């Protein structure tokens, strides 16, 4: 038995969009169940995201501390952002986010993991990259606003983040998945065996 997610689409007999926001919307589908009944499913439609676990030569991860209003907490996170343009190359988006949020660039990129954040209620897909060979970015700093204006940037040892995840002290999903995926990769075939940065991403197909 091969444990692998597979595409499948159940028949939708009606669909509406009761809410449309700036970047996301809410969709309501009437879906035919296996027994022939019809169930209503509400979910958020999301353009997709990228996240970057940026690791320096001292085994420290570049992290951000940012206020997240829905959960009423300041969370430690890794740089991340939306795929603003349909079909956008996720690597280019990740490089942009690393520059905008942390004023950094990286010479080496790999794919750490691809995840659906909350597949029961949202179609958001996130590609998490591993970025190494870090350096300060060039040119002017990106002008931040709103929650990002209060954002803190730090470099924290990977081991300390692992401890915080397992202790229930760190909760951002991209940070949790990225940190544990890196540890798993090192314990397995090594980070050089990770997928290349331009690996196909069926959840959000892109142009090279």
Tell me what the structure shows.
This protein has 208 residues and is α+β, with helices and mostly antiparallel strands. The chain is built from three helices and eleven strands. It has helices at residues 90-102, 158-166, 173-187; strands spanning 12-20, 25-32, 38-45, 49-54, 60-68, 73-77, 80-82, 104-116, 125-136, 152-157, 195-196. The strands form three sheets. A five-stranded mixed sheet has the order 7-4-9-8-11. A hairpin with a 4-residue loop joins strand 5 and strand 6 (73-77). The chain is globular.
Q: What class would the helix/strand composition place it in?
A: alpha+beta
* Secondary-structure element series: EEEEEEEHEEEHHE
> Which term fits the overall shape?
globular
In angstroms, what is the radius of gyration? 19 Å
> How many beta-strand elements?
11
Distance between the termini: 33 Å
> pLDDT average, as an integer?
94
Spans of at least 5 consecutive residues with low confidence: none
Largest sheet: 5 strands, mixed
What proportion of the residues form beta strands (DSSP E)? 35-45%
Oligomer: single chain
Strand arrangement within the widest β-sheet reads 7-4-9-8-11
**Amount of helix:** 10-25%
SS summary, helix count: 3
Domain Nudix hydrolase: 44-178
InterPro entries: NUDIX_hydrolase-like_dom_sf, NUDIX_hydrolase_dom
Keywords: Hydrolase
Organism: Streptomyces omiyaensis
Short characterization:
Residues 44-178 form the Nudix hydrolase domain. It comes from Streptomyces omiyaensis. The protein is of the alpha+beta class and 208 residues long.
């Amino acid at each position: 038995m091969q444990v692998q997610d597979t595409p499948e689409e159940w028949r939708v007999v009606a669909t509406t969009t009761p809410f449309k926001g700036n970047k996301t919307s809410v969709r309501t589908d009437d879906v035919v169940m296996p027994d022939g009944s019809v169930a209503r499913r509400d979910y958020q439609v999301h353009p997709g995201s990228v996240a970057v676990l940026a690791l320096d030569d001292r085994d420290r991860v570049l992290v951000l501390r940012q206020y997240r209003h829905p959960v009423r907490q300041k969370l430690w996170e890794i740089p991340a952002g939306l795929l603003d343009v349909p079909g956008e190359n996720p690597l280019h988006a990740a490089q942009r986010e690393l520059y905008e949020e942390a004023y950094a660039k990286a010479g080496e990129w790999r794919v750490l993991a691809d995840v659906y954040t909350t597949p029961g209620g949202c179609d958001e897909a996130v590609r998490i990259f591993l970025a190494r060979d870090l350096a300060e970015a060039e040119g002017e700093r990106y002008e931040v606003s709103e929650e990002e204006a209060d954002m803190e940037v730090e470099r924290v040892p990977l081991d300390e983040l692992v401890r915080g995840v397992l202790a229930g002290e760190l909760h951002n999903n991209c940070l949790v998945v990225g940190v544990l995926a890196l540890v798993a990769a090192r314990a397995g075939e090594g980070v050089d065996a990770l997928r290349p940065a331009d690996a196909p991403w069926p959840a959000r197909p892109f142009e090279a």
